[in-house]
UniProtKB/TrEMBL annotation, chain A:
It is a multi-pass membrane protein. The chain crosses the membrane at residues 20-40, 52-76, 82-105, 142-168, 188-210. It is found in: Cell membrane. This is Metal ABC transporter permease. Coiled coil: none annotated. InterPro entries: AA_ABC_Transporter_Permease, MetI-like, MetI-like_sf. PANTHER family: ABC TRANSPORTER PERMEASE, D-METHIONINE TRANSPORT SYSTEM PERMEASE PROTEIN METI-RELATED. SUPFAM superfamilies: MetI-like. It comes from Gluconobacter kondonii. Belongs to the binding-protein-dependent transport system permease family.
From TrEMBL, chain B:
Pfam families: ABC_tran. Keywords: Amino-acid transport, ATP-binding, Cell membrane, Membrane, Nucleotide-binding, Translocase, Transport. This is ABC transporter domain-containing protein. InterPro entries: AAA+_ATPase (IPR003593), ABC_transporter-like_ATP-bd (IPR003439), ABC_transporter-like_CS (IPR017871), MetN_ABC_transporter-like (IPR050086), P-loop_NTPase (IPR027417). The lineage of its organism: Bacteria, Pseudomonadati, Pseudomonadota, Alphaproteobacteria, Acetobacterales.
Length: 219, 267
């Protein structure tokens, strides 16, 4: 491969990774507390305040119902407000995070709900505060599932980040559109697809390994 | 008057006129009994008799519809959330299903009991070692619950329950998930804890055998009421008044005979 082309691919891959991991980090930062709230506000939960749970559930589901490509466009003013620009890699992190937060929250919620209510009840009965139960029981006991959920989120973000190329974000998607699609460069297109496939497989392998390692001591 | 005073000081737990209603039915009806310090009381009843509900009332996990529960003279119903948490920490709980964290080792699970009490990290390590020694789990500190037998898991559960030097230990079917050998060893451990640490124990069970081996006194619960309150001594002399108590004893005898037959056939 020509040196300049290689450079192009290298930079695009880095940009994609930056978008994916930065938005995944934000998704966990906001999505995990959201998932905890969705879980504990259920009837019979640790903190059964139904109105809060319902409200959060509606917000999460509405956000998830909007197709990413539309969200991308709708969020342009918001992105401009937050990042100062709606173009480029950094700007793409905004819509990617907004789509990943509720996505991760719902997946994480499933894992958190699988933690035995009897165990939670027991630790509560031992005199633990709710915060203690969340920190020492709910999250650690759900951790293998949460890691799997993060893996799924990362994979989804890789494909979404490629879509962000449409609105001028950098990365592999941008490369595919400008060279592969607009200039009919099929080889470039194939390269982009190959790199995306390899990234996805790598994320999946690492995610599965970490989750399996954590699950080792679980029955 | 002086006598009354002494009696009260010795009183670990007092339940008076306790009723709990679920869906218009009495789950517990006018329950009254007291337990003095150092006593082991067995609470027996068929499933659905209200045993677990009663146990939940004893540590303030249920709101009462009437009556009250006094633990070390403190009325649970009038305590604020914070005070209730503090009081719960004076009560150790042992569960049928162990309720251990799968994500933590033996030492980590025992540590949870200490963390709940707010014991500083530096002091935890030594207390964990003491507790591990007490329940006989030396060498298993770094194992996970999934690597332990049922009896060992229950030892971890007991160690965790004892973390805060509780005055009272509530055991909810603590041996029901265990095989006979593990049951024997856990009952022996509970007896040691009672004798050496002076911990008052309330045992919930549906097995008369467990009660006869360990308890000083038996309460028989039927349809939400206490139908018999009798010392183990009188029970062994066959002086139980209520038909249900006698049926528990005779059923156990049947099991004993089966067990004997089983043993003589070469196993």
């Amino acid at each position: 491969m020509h040196h300049q082309v290689f450079d192009l691919f290298f930079k695009a891959t880095l940009a994609t990774l930056e978008m994916v991991f930065a938005s995944a980090a934000i998704a966990v930062l906001f999505g995990l507390p959201l998932a905890v709230l969705l879980t504990i506000t259920r009837p019979g939960g640790l903190w059964p305040v139904r109105p809060i749970g319902r409200l959060l559930g509606i917000v999460v589901d509405l956000t998830r119902a909007v197709p990413f490509i539309i969200l991308l466009v709708v969020l342009i003013p918001f992105t401009r407000f937050v990042m100062g620009t709606a173009l480029g890699t950094a700007a793409a992190i905004v819509p990617l995070s907004i789509t990943a937060i509720p996505y991760f929250a719902r997946i994480a919620e499933v894992s958190l709900r699988e933690v035995s209510p009897e165990l939670i009840d027991a630790v509560r009965a031992m005199g633990a505060t709710r915060t203690k139960v969340v920190r020492s029981v709910l999250i650690p006991e759900a951790l293998p599932g949460l890691v799997s959920g993060l893996t799924v989120t990362l994979v989804t973000l890789i494909s979404a980040s490629a879509m962000a190329g449409v609105v001028g974000a950098g990365g592999l998607g941008d490369l595919a559109i400008r060279y592969g699609y607009q200039r009919f460069n099929t080889v470039m297109m194939l390269w982009v697809v190959s790199i995306l496939v390899v990234l996805t497989i790598l994320v999946q392998i690492v995610g599965n390994a970490v989750s399996a390692r954590l699950r080792k001591n679980f029955t | 008057m002086q006598n009354t005073g002494v009696a009260e000081a010795n009183e670990m737990l007092k339940v008076e006129g306790l009723s709990k209603i679920f869906n218009g039915h009495y789950a517990l009806e006018n329950i009254g009994f007291s337990v003095h310090r150092g006593e082991i009381v067995g609470l027996i009843g068929r499933s659905g008799a209200g045993k677990t509900t009663l146990l939940r009332c004893l540590n303030g996990a249920e709101n009462l519809d009437s009556g009250h529960v006094l633990v070390e003279g403190k009325n649970l119903s009038v305590l604020k959330e914070r005070e209730l948490l503090a009081l719960r920490q004076r009560i150790g709980l042992v569960f049928q299903g162990f309720n251990l964290l799968q994500s933590r080792t033996v030492a980590g699970n025992i540590s949870l009991g200490l963390e709940i009490l707010g014991v500083p990290k530096k002091e935890r390590q030594q207390r964990i070692q003491e507790l591990i020694h007490l329940v006989g789990l030396e060498g298993h500190e770094t194992k996970y619950p999934s690597q332990l037998s049922g009896g060992q898991k229950q030892r971890v559960g007991i160690a965790r329950a004892l973390a805060g030097h509780p005055a009272l230990l509530l055991c909810d079917e603590a041996t029901s998930a265990l095989d006979p050998e593990a049951t024997t060893s856990i009952l022996a451990l509970l007896e040691t804890i009672n004798k050496e640490l002076g911990v008052t124990i309330i045992l919930i069970t549906h097995e008369m055998d467990v009660i006869r081996r360990l308890a000083h006194r038996v309460l028989v619960l039927d349809q939400g009421r206490i139908v018999e309150d009798i010392s183990n001594e009188l029970l062994n002399r066959g002086e139980a008044k209520h038909a249900l108590t006698r049926s528990f004893i005779s059923r156990e005898n049947v099991e004993d005979m089966e067990a004997a037959g089983y043993a003589s056939s070469g196993f």
